[in-house]
Sequence to fold (635 residues):
Amino acid sequence: MSAVTGGHERGWWRRNGVWLAVLPLAIAAAAVSWSFRLVNLWWPTELVHEADSAGAGGTAHYAGEYYDLGFDDPSLANTWVTREVDVQVLAVRPVEGLPRSVTAEIDSVPDGSAAWRIDLELAAAPGTALGSCQVMLVSSDGTRYGEGGATNDPLGQGNPCVPEDAPDALAPDAGTWQTSTVLLTRAGDTPEEVWFSFGSPDYVTLAVP
Amino acid sequence: MKHASSAAPGLIGVARNVFAALGTTGRVIAGLAAAVLAATPFGAWNAVANDAMALTADTPVDVGPYTVTIEKVVSAKALGDVRALDPEDRLLIVVAQVTNTSDRPANAQQLTDIVPAPVGGGVVDTGGMPVPDSAGPGERPAPDRYNIADAGELDVINPGVTYRVALVWNQAGDARPAEVRVDLAGLTWIEEGFAGLDDEYWLPADEVTHSGMFDVEPPRSEAATGPDA
Amino acid sequence: MLLAPAAIGAATWFVTQVPQDTAVDAPFEIGGAVGETVHLGYADLVVTDVRVAEQIAGDGVAQAGGVFVVVDAVWQASDRTIAVGGAELVDSRERVHAATDRSGCATATTAVPAYRQRISYCFDVPPDALDGAQLRLGRGGDGEEGAFQRRDAVAVVGLGLGLDRVPGEEAGADAAPIEVHGPAPVVRTGTDGQEDA
Fold:
């Protein structure tokens, strides 16, 4: 910044007033043009939208859009469908044994890990698609356990949202049903929240009762 | 320019004056130049076709990140456990040695771009349809590729590593060619792709750079059992 | 008043002088050695063992074109599920070698915070690549330039290999094929050469 050059000249702020006024607009325009990354890259790949939350024992209402390919219901093929599911956490408690599954990679709790059983009550309109459902445990420091759902489960459990003997991943005719699933955490880490999702970006948060 | 005083107006006039000023040799050269210029729309400047270099057995050729040496061409009923899709058909096998001479890993899938299906060998595509001899390198069916040392498939070829590979096509059951033409197609290095989105990779050029006739050998025994038949 | 354009000019000159791939976009390298835990921020990594042989046996037997370097590693993510791939072996001549998925080897796996995930990376490299070879590992996939990996931490682990490990040489590599298994959780500490709990 050049020093004072004489009282009769206009100050720097006045001479550059127009450009100073334009600057916020230019920054805003740059942010807008950059924001496609937010919409196209970050939003659909991260769990960033908390659709609802519930206290201990409460019910959270999940509502999120997904693009249906028509595998379960051909009439929905290639349309955006809003999926709505009510979730209630009945219990989260430590367990010793692991569920038996022919596709399990391990048959006992690994050293340094702990196993938790999560009991849920779900409600949805019969026929609601429940594919790619994820139930996660989140500890106080924000560590997420169980992200990825059945596709990344060493215990070989199926979809954590459908009853054990269900023929397909659709909400049963009863409209309300219970499921349970086992997740591993680091030993000594106590889960504080259950997150429930069908993939990015929407999820709901429920306090552990 | 002694006749320049009788100048006609315009470009044609200038051309006429210049032509008049040229000697006989000059007129011949100018005439030839004009003829070549006039032939431009008909491809006078195109590269001469069929300028592929000779390809012979056991001679190393540099293609993209590889040095490729074609060893031999074999026609067999089976190669180990590998058989043609149609039980009536046979296998046409090109045996080659490949070395990655670059300093980055190369994808062995590119061998199928580098060695197009031999011509005149009765190669059929996966649908059993014969491949016309006029098909360009990019239009011919891709072979299955095997590492001869372990009969497994190859995914990556690291710098400085040499493999003996078998490239295997389906061949019409009644084809008994004495010799086939083996081509090598080049790869083009893309330093920076469109808008810098995809940089530094080898793109198939689909252009034959080397070509040569190879005798088609029978397998060591028609009931070949080993991958090195 | 000249200061602002001068500063912008200097900054522009500086950025154009810095090589884009090796400085501006380069990942953060974190060094380590076999048996040490490398803290990458998003995960902890331990290279538990390095073996050299001409053959590996997992899903069938694979024969090396050069020699197989099998690197056993254990991943544990910090706070969420991540994809870890992009394994590269860089030799003393700066040649880059990619991992293979022949036989039972894997080139990538998923790391989670709940338990330690074991994976064997296999590299088929020329024998002269062993001396001074370093392993580069990070999150993301498809090599170090792959998605999600650049500008994040990358582990650079010296493998401590010398030419004496070339099969057929005096000290020799393992004569028998190396047994490899696909990625799986580590259940018992100590059964996998694992010294870090």
About this structure: The interface with chain B takes residues 55, 60-63, 65-66, 93-103, 123-126, 128-129, 143 of chain C (CB under 8 Å). The first strand of chain C starts at residue 28 and ends at 33. The radius of gyration of chain C is 19 Å.
